[in-house]
Amino acid sequence: MSVKPLEDRVLIKPSDPDKKTESGIYLPESAKEKPIQGKVIAVGPGKMLDNGERVKPSVRKGDTVVFGKYAGTEIEIKNVTHMIMRESELLGVIVK
User: Fold this and answer.
1) Residue 77 contacts residue 3 (beta carbons within 8 Å)
2) Tens digits of per-residue pLDDT, 45-76?
């Protein structure tokens, strides 16, 4: 199964949360926070304007993005959790 985002939606594979703190303490599952960044897997064609033109998305496949803790909707693809959200819910792109 694969998912092709529609309009201005983006499919993201969230980064795995840290399993231990910087000081070396291992975290139990209940203490881990939801991921707030991930890799863009697929991008929709862009938002359709009232005049019939399409706005090109500002992110592309392979970008690492930051998003809000409660943004988007979780979906499962081949037993792997992904997020699908509107491009406007993204907070930024991580530039390396």
Assistant:
1) yes
2) 999 899 989 999 999 999 999 998 889 999 99
Q: Give backbone dihedrals phi and psi of 31, rounded to 5 degrees, phi first.
A: -95, -10
Domain assignments of the chain as residue spans, ordered by start: 9-94
Measured distance between the N- and C-terminal CA atoms of the chain, rounded to whole angstroms: 31
Taking residues 9-24, what's their average pLDDT?
76
Closest to 42 in 3D by CA, of 10, 1, 74, 75: 10
Q: What CATH code is assigned to 9-94? A: 2.30.33.40
The pTM of this model reads: 0.78
For 71, the token pair is 């943004």
Alpha carbon 33 to chain centroid, angstroms: 15
CA atoms within 13 A on the CB side of 52: 0
